[in-house]
Structure formats: structure tokens, C-alpha cells
Design a protein that fits this description.
- The chain contains 8 helices and 18 strands.
- It is of the alpha+beta class.
- It folds into 2 domains: 8-169, Aminotransferase class 4, branched-chain amino acid transferase, N-terminal domain (D-amino Acid Aminotransferase, Chain A, domain 1), CATH 3.30.470.10; 175-339, D-amino Acid Aminotransferase, Chain A, domain 2.
- The strands form 2 sheets. Strands 1, 2, 3, 4, 5, 6, 7, 8 and 18 form a 9-stranded mixed sheet that branches.
- The longest helix has 14 residues, at 90-103.
- The two termini are 13 Å apart.
- The mean pLDDT is 95.
- Bound molecules: pyridoxal-5'-phosphate.
């Protein structure tokens, strides 16, 4: 591991922690006392600092606001049964962050700033990691272009920040999902595999239409035939078909390479499922449903971990699932949460301790 980097740190005068009601912390609403901020200019990262959480002072002409060079990550920190702080698989988020940076023609954030900065920030604000089961501290690293110039070209200046947001149990009742055939999230050659801000802005319209029809989210399909399924909203999707666990493959660059997806694949294989990463056609799913082979459908992602799907609607065909009888998804959820909260041995080496 890298040597401890010297990060200039300015502490808050008064912590906001006592103002927080841990009984009621909606996702993404509250932020911890401190944040990390770094600036890229003239080809190098400089002025890495940890300071009180505060507004940024930015020119209205900054490039990110106009042309969307902006990427982010989502990571979580947990407290184990002994009260010690751990971050779940941050190295995977670090790698993915720079994959997104490449695609958006942005500079890499060096490992020492991303990893060491995250650890030092979490260590400083470790009291913000809620102690209760199903609670965690959401970590939001992000980067955007900050040239003060209205011209379409890659920026010369960038800002990288990390925010921390305590979060309670993500209330996820089993969802009703609409298979989207008109609007698309990702195309081969596009930016679907990057955690780029524009992917989220561009998905809201179709999601709002699905909500109007009474669904919680859309299941995105491929841009050409609208037959091959991709992801559910901002989660990867899994199908339990007989003794197989199937999820869309990464090869076309239209799927976000989720850390939770990868963890679920590992756990499902350990549970004895045959795991398959490949193209999944909607007709295959309907066929398997009619035969009674399609047993479970669920989404995976850092925010909600595992989300059960109770209804999948494709054209006039509705697939219903009895989530209470499921085996795979609840088991994956239990194992993942157990590892993260230190109740199950971390045999995969996923937890990184914060000193
Ligand atoms: C972040 C994200 C996921 C889930 O990735 P995790 O690393 O598991 O949090 C899945 N799909 C999309 C589109 C995402 O943005």
C-alpha cells in the first residue's frame, strides 16, 4: 500500500453530528463534517486538502455545466461488530473511476489521492458511520471539468472531491418493472460502461414515463432490437433460471461493471449456481417464465444492495414473482450484508480497514 500522503487538513469548529437524527436519514441528504478537494491544473494534481464541508465558488462558465465532463463513484463504509471502520472494495471503485475518466477524456486521479484521501477522510469522520444494522456511510468521489471557457474541448482544469453521507436502511420494497422499448440508456460505442453524469440525466425521462404508468423503474433494452436486456434503472440485473444465475455480459460496453454485480456473481457461484455473463433475450425470459424456470429477478447496486423484482411487464405480458419463496437473492443479500457488517468472515478479502 502507498505511504501515508500528507493531506492538508482543516477541521470544523463545531461538528454537526449531534444535530443528526440517526432514526431518519434519507439517502444522500446529509453530509459529514468534512470533504476532500483536489485541483488539476497544468498537467498535475495539486492542493489536495480535507476541509469543512462547504459550497464551492465556481464561475458560471465552467465547462462541466455546459458539456458534461463529469464522473462519479459510489462506495460504502461500514462499522463492524467491534466498532471498527471498513470500506467495501474501494480498489474496484478506484479502477472503475479511471475507466470512466478515460472515456470522458479526463485525467486519471492517482491512487494515493483517491484511496489514501478516501481513507483519511473516512478515518477523520468515522463517527458518521452509523452503528445500527443496515446503516452505512455512503462515499461519493466525483470529478468535473472546471475550465472557465465556453468552447467544446477537453478541459485543462478539473476538480476532484469526496463527500460522505450517512445512510439508513434503503427502503426497498419489491419493485414493479417496465421493459423499455422506445428510449435507450446505452449503445455499443457509447458511454454506458462509464459512471458519467450524463447517463443519469438522460435516463430520467423514460423512468418518469414508467412511473406514470405505475412502475418503479425501467428495464433497459438494447438500442437496435429492443430485445436484449441491459440494466434496471441504475442497477445491474440478475435472473435465476433453473440452476443458473444469469446476468447481461460486459462485452458490448453497454453495462456498468458493478462492484455489487461482481460480488453477487462470486457469492452465487459459491452457493452452487452456474453463473453466466452473456446476452439475455426477452423471449428467453418469457419462455423460462412460462416453463416455471424463471424463479427470481433482482437488481444489484451499492445504494440498495439487492432489490427484488416482483413484477416484470413486457408489452402486454406480465411476469409475477413470489419474492417470499426466493432462495438466491435473500442469500446473496444476507451474505453481502453479513460480510460488510463483520458478522460473516470476509473470506474474499473485500473489506479494507480504515485506521
Ligand atoms: C453504479 C451503477 C451500478 C451499480 O454498480 P455498483 O458498483 O454495484 O454500485 C449499476 N448500474 C449503473 C448504471 C450504475 O450507475
Amino acid at each position: 500500500m502507498l505511504a501515508t500522503m500528507d493531506i492538508a487538513t482543516t477541521l470544523v469548529e463545531r461538528s454537526k453530528l449531534q444535530d443528526l437524527n440517526f432514526q431518519d436519514i434519507p439517502f444522500g441528504k446529509y453530509f459529514s463534517d468534512h470533504m476532500l478537494e483536489a485541483d488539476y491544473e497544468n498537467g498535475e494534481w495539486k492542493s489536495v486538502e480535507i476541509k469543512p464541508y462547504q459550497p464551492l465558488l465556481l464561475s458560471p462558465s465552467i465547462a462541466a455545466l455546459h458539456y458534461g465532463q463529469a464522473i462519479f463513484e459510489g462506495v460504502k463504509a461500514y462499522r463492524d461488530v467491534n466498532g471498527e471502520a471498513f470500506i467495501f472494495r474501494p480498489q474496484d471503485n478506484f479502477r472503475r473511476f479511471n475507466v470512466s475518466a478515460d472515456r470522458m477524456q479526463m485525467p486519471h486521479v492517482p491512487e494515493e489521492i483517491f484511496m489514501e484521501g478516501m481513507k483519511q477522510l473516512v478515518a477523520l469522520d468515522h463517527k458518521w458511520i452509523p452503528e445500527k444494522a443496515d446503516h452505512s456511510l455512503y462515499i461519493r468521489p466525483f470529478m468535473f471539468s472546471s475550465d472557465e471557457l465556453i468552447g467544446v474541448r477537453p478541459s485543462e482544469k478539473y476538480k476532484f472531491l469526496i463527500l460522505l453521507s450517512p445512510t439508513g436502511p434503503y427502503y426497498n420494497a419489491p419493485m414493479r418493472i417496465y421493459v423499455e422499448e422506445q428510449y435507450v440508456r446505452a449503445v455499443p460505442g457509447g458511454i454506458g460502461y462509464a459512471k458519467a453524469a450524463g447517463n443519469y440525466g438522460s435516463s430520467m425521462y423514460a423512468t418518469a414515463l414508467a412511473k406514470k404508468k405505475g412502475y418503479d423503474q425501467v428495464l433497459w433494452t438494447d438500442a437496435f432490437e429492443h430485445k436484449y436486456v441491459q440494466e434496471i434503472g441504475t442497477m445491474n440485473v440478475f435472473f435465476i433460471i433453473g440452476d443458473k444465475a444469469v446476468t447481461p455480459g460486459l462485452e458490448l460496453g453497454t453495462i456498468l461493471d458493478g462492484v455489487t454485480r461482481n460480488s453477487a456473481l462470486t457469492i452465487l457461484a459459491d452457493m452452487g449456481y452456474k453463473v453466466e455473463e452473456r446476452r439475455v433475450h426477452i423471449d428467453e425470459l418469457m419462455e423460462a417464465y412460462k416453463n416455471g424456470e424463471l424463479k427470481e429477478v433482482f437488481g444489484t447496486g451499492t445504494a440498495a444492495t439487492i432489490s427484488y423484482i416482483k413484477e416484470l411487464r413486457y408489452k402486454d405480458f406480465t411476469m409475477n414473482f413470489d419474492c417470499d419463496s426466493w432462495k438466491a437473492a435473500p442469500n446473496v443479500k444476507k451474505t453481502l450484508n453479513g460480510i460488510r457488517e463483520g458478522r460473516i468472515p470476509d473470506k474474499y478479502g473485500w473489506m479494507v480497514k480504515v485506521h
